[in-house]
């Protein structure tokens, strides 16, 4: 525009087009064209002072037909459609039908989609991801759930939908499970690999807690049980970046497609068991994989069979057995807690950190990669499982934690508290198993004055309340302030002292 302004100024001084071309370094034809445009627009030097370059350009080079940036046909508000598209069951076909209902002369479906995608592209840049055969499988749970009715009660319980999509072929797997917890999450992976008949190089999950303990862009912390499953199949785990769904756009699209096939087409059916629902889902998965993709002209199954199946690694000889791994620190009673029960380890490991592995049948405990204890898993009965070989031959080496010291602590409060400590230790197969209870009770008594602590202890002995919860309940309910049968309490106390004396003499 600066050049055009100079052209108009020189023309007003009577300079020829050839001379202006030499002065400005522009072809004579360009000078003549610009002067014709200025004459047609009614512009002459001097130009108005408030005439900006943008207005000057618009007046000189205005396009014929529709104004620039204005469509010939009515358009929807694209930003509203982006929000509408997030609603369950809504896709571009639904939005286009609603648009054409309001604007019968509007755009065709293909042009409508093109304009919508152009608008989406302006929202944020997207990296085109190329997926090699056998490289990645993208896994996630659908946000929408499938209802399953209990035939006895009629109560509807919602089941999760697990979806997996192979990167190169878009070959899809889906199943229903009750929860997103670790057993269902890992079990779904095992069944997914069996369905594919092979293993890709990488799994790309979302940052679900069952898969990723701590999400991080640089160093995500993989759940130990999930990592063991990946090691069994020889597959790597590459979590998507936190709050970056486009990192796993394959499965996001697969989830939407599966929702339309599974939730949309099965919404009229009533399921009475998880197995029945999964049978129906398997039929829908077959339809998904047999569906011819519009842009490629072939089905997912065709792509899988032709390019991806042979690229997958072979399955191991046996399926992965789910085991829940965890960390624990060996307590003073040389036991560790696993799933609500306590299992012994060699007493030399007191205060050491160990790894625990719990399967359906057994509990294994490892220290520095070496298995130090194995127990049959407990689901009922006594909470402590103690192997005799784990017990110390003499507790003197741990003199700081002995029954005698707990008895001395109790005696420092009063005789009733001492009797309660003796009774608690006497009612355990091994006195070390009562150490935690004694510690908890003595901690409770720190908040009480000595007379009330003695009253609570007497009441507990009278009732035979030799665990932490019962004594805490006596304090909370103030049962120590009500009348109690002294004779019965004294008899229980005397009996407990006689039993406990065996541990100290």
Provide a compact summary of the structure.
This protein is an alpha+beta fold and 505 residues long. It has helices at 2-12, 17-24, 28-40, 53-60, 78-84, 92-102, 109-123, 182-196, 224-233, 249-265, 274-290, 300-308, 403-413, 415-426, 435-445, 450-463, 468-477, 486-501, and strands at 136-141, 146-149, 156-166, 172-177, 202-204, 212-214, 221-222, 236-237, 324-329, 335-338, 341-344, 353-358, 362-367, 370-376, 384-385.
Structure description:
- The chain has 505 residues and is an alpha+beta fold.
- It has helices spanning 2-12, 17-24, 28-40, 53-60, 78-84, 92-102, 109-123, 182-196, 224-233, 249-265, 274-290, 300-308, 403-413, 415-426, 435-445, 450-463, 468-477, 486-501, and strands spanning 136-141, 146-149, 156-166, 172-177, 202-204, 212-214, 221-222, 236-237, 324-329, 335-338, 341-344, 353-358, 362-367, 370-376, 384-385.
- The strands form four sheets. Strands 1, 2, 3, 4, 5 and 8 form a six-stranded mixed β-sheet that branches.
- The termini are far apart.
- Residues 125-129, 395-399 and 486-505 have low confidence and may be disordered.
Question: For the terminal residues, how far apart are their CA atoms?
Answer: 108 Å
What is the count of DSSP helices, taking H or I runs of 4+ residues? Answer: 18
**Percentage beta strand:** 5-15%
Q: Give the proportion of residues in helices.
A: 40-55%
The total count of strands amounts to: 15
The secondary-structure class comes to alpha+beta
How would a crystallographer describe the biggest sheet?
A: 6 strands, mixed
Radius of gyration: 39 Å
Extract low-pLDDT stretches: 125-129, 395-399, 486-505
Overall average pLDDT: 80
Shape: elongated
